[in-house]
Amino acid sequence: MSNRHLLVWIEGTVIAALAMVLEYLPHAVGPLNISFGIIPLAVFSLRRGWKAGVTSGLVWGLLDLFLRGFGSGGFLNPLQGLIEYPIAFAVVGLIGVGAGPVRHGLANQQHARVFGYALSATLLGVLLKYFMHFVAGVIYWGSYAPKGMSPVLYSLVANGGSAILNLVLSGVVVGLLLVTAPQLFAPKNAQPA
Q: What sections of the protein cross the membrane (predicted)?
């Protein structure tokens, strides 16, 4: 394993741990949940690409499953646990599909394009995460819907609101970081994503 790959693995592990630590911050706004861990994973994915991002997200999802899921009642059965933890958290790393265009745009001073690529990729990752939660909500959590409300509507409201909240938060923070610290998105030892 080359030094570059080892550096990316270490960086990804630190990001997964940071994302997990951020999950312990109070993160409920009424029935909606803010996932602060999406922010460092978004930056890492835009920095290192989708493969590294998905791997780091997978580690974060496993950490969340073992540290919070089993103890909080968020684990109902193995398939639901797989969908809502490792898979849902790993797909956030697909934000990294925007890594190459973001680095290219930064190198060429194309600020509007950089924002477009970064925000589009962030939209993709956040929506995929909450789509996984939506599917699990319909299948596994639908019985908790208020009487007369369909499980689909219940899951859409619960997960859709959280998705919007997380998309706005992560989009704003990623945008601010692109302006104030663009070097975070263009490491010196980067290979094409």
A: 5-22, 28-46, 58-76, 82-102, 114-141, 153-179
